[in-house]
Amino acid sequence: MQNGNVTEELDALIVGSGFGGIWLLYHLRKLGFKAKIYEAGQDLGGIWYWNCYPGARVDSDVPLYEYSLEEIWREWTWTERFPSWEELREYFKFVDKKLDISKDCHFNTRVTAAEFDKEKDQWIIATEDGLVTRAKYFLPCTGFAAKRYVPPFKGLETFEGECHHTAVWPQNGIELRDKKIGVIGTGASGVQVIQEVGPIAKNLVSLRSLVGQLGSLADTFPVDRISTYPKPSLADGTAEVGQTETT
Ligand SMILES: Cc1cc2nc3c(=O)[nH]c(=O)nc-3n(C[C@H](O)[C@H](O)[C@H](O)COP(=O)(O)OP(=O)(O)OC[C@H]3O[C@@H](n4cnc5c(N)ncnc54)[C@H](O)[C@@H]3O)c2cc1C
Predict the structure, then answer these.
(1) What is the C-alpha to C-alpha distance for residues 212 and 231, in angstroms, rounded to an integer?
(2) Interval 88-100: pLDDT, tens
């Protein structure tokens, strides 16, 4: 990598343009640093760019979840107490307008390697599309969920239906009305999807594993549960609403 063509030389290279990366860029600029952000996504927002699934919204109520910069909070008014991803995107647009962040961002740019050059006291950073950057400070603001997890489900490769992960939801959305849908997981994202999609789905099955919660009791209690929404037909022998089937 050391011999690659250096395309840019910076004081600081930030990875990720979510809340963290934007905050750092803003402050480093104020301190006189020449800094840039490299972002794998197409726009600002970090997790709010990728997690655009139905029902995605903030869990901490307003005004906890926002920048504490006066030039931002004074002029911005949320329309909901727990804003949706759509409103978060509008918020990031507003932040960009006020702080002029995008001009120092390379979007669609995934960092793939970083190596420290001791002689020059600099990081050499490489990206998927061939950029090689030198910077004194290398600052990953990559969040906790950038590396999404897909469990090794048997048969997933041959599954013929559509399959989507909430953390990389298609940017143009998906038509879910009147579809038969299975939601795997009942953490915050799973619950959000279920309550939004349940009312429009033809049928929705929610699947969760209780392994983690049961710990050593796993041997004595069933580990998988299936609950259904909306109310399934009793005629076909499936469970009543609110009832949980165990397998
Ligand atoms: C639905 C939902 C609701 C949430 N609600 C709350 C809440 O109410 N309160 C709260 O405190 N937190 C909440 N969170 C957590 C949220 O992750 C944080 O609040 C915050 O947005 C994280 O910001 P960040 O800048 O640290 O990282 P992120 O927003 O995750 O940004 C990281 C960025 O780094 C980029 N990146 C990663 N690797 C690379 C690479 N190799 N090259 C280039 N770019 C890369 C990613 O593309 C991403 O854009 C919620 C998360 C979700 C999904």
Answers:
(1) 28
(2) 999 999 999 999 9
42: left (phi over 0), alpha (psi -120 to 50) or beta: alpha
Q: Which atom in ligand 1 lies closest to the alpha carbon of residue 46? A: 49
The span from the CA of 163 to the CA of 212, in Å, is 24
Helix, strand, or coil here: 246?
strand
Distance separating alpha carbons of residues 247 and 242, to the nearest angstrom: 16
Break the chain into its structural domains and give their ranges: 8-140
Atom 14 in ligand 1: residue holding the nearest Cα: 58
**Digit-coded pLDDT (tens) for 187-242:** 999 999 999 999 999 999 999 877 554 444 444 434 344 444 444 444 443 433 33
Q: Is the CB of 65 under 6 A from ligand 1?
A: yes
**Does the beta carbon of 83 lie inside 6 Å of ligand 1?**
no
Q: Is the CB of 40 under 6 A from ligand 1?
A: yes
Superfamily holding 8-140: FAD/NAD(P)-binding domain (3.50.50.60)
- Decide whether any atom of ligand 1 lies within 6 Å of the 141 Cβ: yes
pLDDT at 108 over 60: yes
Q: Is any ligand 1 atom within 6 A of the Cβ of residue 38?
A: yes
Looking at residues 50-78, what average pLDDT do you find?
Answer: 94
DSSP run (H or E) holding 24: helix 19-30
